[in-house]
Predict the structure.
Amino acid sequence: MGRSLEVTWNDGRSYAFPLIWLRDNCDCPRCLHPHTRERTFDLLTVPETPRVASAGLAGRGAVMVLWGDDGHTSKYEPDWLRRYAFESSDDDLTRPDVVLWDASLSGHVPRFDYRAVMESEQGLEAWLSALLGHGVAVVADTPCRDREVVRVTERIAYARRSNFGEHFEVQTETNPINNAYTALKLPNHTDLCNWERSPGYQFLHCLENAATGGESTLVDGFRIAEALRRADAGAFRVLSTMPVLFRFHDTECDLRFHAPIVGLDGSGRFERIRFNLGLFGVQALPPDETAALYAAYRKFAQLVRDDRYQIRFRLRPGDLLTFDNWRVLHGRLAYQPSTGKRHLQGCYVDRDEVLSRLRMSISAVTDAA
Ligand SMILES: O=C(O)CCC(=O)C(=O)O
Ligand SMILES: [Fe+2]
Ligand SMILES: [Zn+2]
């Protein structure tokens, strides 16, 4: 026998499972702790190609293997094996069906009802799925209560703290530590891109919006990166490979991180955009690299404010705007504080927590069906 065990299902399809993979994934109580569900089997206790003393089928097609090295018996259900055959993945959420959007999303941002999100598993799943697919969703009729934005994050897990606190107040301040706390226009940006752990998701809860101006803007950063890749491959290469300094500092902190503006994963897919004119640091690069960076950066910045890609709308009190801060850039127009009050409360949730909660929700909804 070789390095794998060939399994054939009733429909005639077959797949060769590597023996070390089978041995390592025995789920008996000696190999997988029945309470923690963590592996207790140590793979170095068997050879790289474990020996099979015998293999056969038990009731309902389960594959039984008696291992030659340690005399251990393992049992594998056919449906479980099928899930891992043919290179399918156990985790669909890390590759969501991303729907890239442009200005045509205007008027069509997915909206979900606060009570459905807070009180039903289906409502939660629908909202989080939209947040993964479109990268943006509004939870409507969110009660205009202090810190309600934090309570919504607790429906998922917990808020991700930052130097701006567990949550932050977006309103004009006399001594602002951040451009968001002024009445100035905020060009589209991602928050906290000066952190290694830039937050995965951002929530902004509109409590009051009576001032003239202050409309919200959003743009799909992956769509922008895609547009740049098509228009100028050289600029795209610069932005997706050259680490750039982002920095925020005040009297309490000096938070810096170097990373490319367009972050790609190991397979070349878009992973995370970091773009914030205000947090773009003083780059210390040789002159020719500085020039190349600025040329590419300006092209990206132009697309980020291009009306072909951007949507613009007015938040109403009770709207909780939620978006993927690794993908969607947000901004607002300037407003006139003398004409009325504008007050949002914001906070962040990390990506792990959102994905985990969605997986749990999907299995709860499926089990109930
Ligand atoms: O005022 C707004 O609409 C957005 C402010 C902002 O960018 C933020 O709080 O991160
Ligand atoms: Fe922001
Ligand atoms: Zn076992």
